[in-house]
Amino acid sequence: NPEEPQQPRVYTYEVQASFHHDSEAFTQGLFWDGDSLMESVGMYGSSDIREVELDSGAVLRQQGLQQREFAEGIVKYRNRYYMLLWKVGDGIVFDEKFNRVG
């Protein structure tokens, strides 16, 4: 009957694997880049961009932000990382070595 509401679909999931992660890191953005995870970590005074080894959770490299900057989402486009900053309507552009270029 078209007038009867449809029941919502129920989905299930199964955890395939779990990995180590820095419990002090407040992940705001996360994506794969080759064999590594690229992560933006947000918190005033401790925000950063980092490359993380998936299997061990080890931070391979990172670049901290200024005290007043709170990292949000991150994406890579044409060999640049673009990071949004919370509440300020701004962002940061990093090169592949995590140097600020914009």
Structural account:
The protein is mainly β and 102 residues long. Helix content is 0%, strand content 42%. It contains no helices and seven strands. The strands form two sheets. The protein has a four-stranded antiparallel sheet with strand order 1-2-3-4, with no helix packed on it. The protein has a three-stranded antiparallel sheet with strand order 5-6-7, with no helix packed on it. Strand 6 and strand 7 form a beta hairpin. The radius of gyration is 18 Å and the shape is extended. The N and C termini lie far apart (58 Å). The model has no long low-confidence stretch (mean pLDDT 93).
Looking at how many chains there are and whether they match, the oligomeric state comes to: single chain
Query: Radius of gyration from the CA trace?
Result: 18 Å
Structural class assignment: mainly beta
Q: How much is the average pLDDT?
A: 93
**Beta-strand segment tally:** 7
How are helices and strands ordered from N to C? EEEEEEE
Distance between the termini: 58 Å
Residues in β-strands, percent: 35-45%
| Total helical segments | 0
> How would a crystallographer describe the biggest sheet?
4 strands, antiparallel
Helix content: under 10%
The order of strands across the largest sheet is 1-2-3-4
Low-confidence stretches: none
Principal-axes shape call: extended
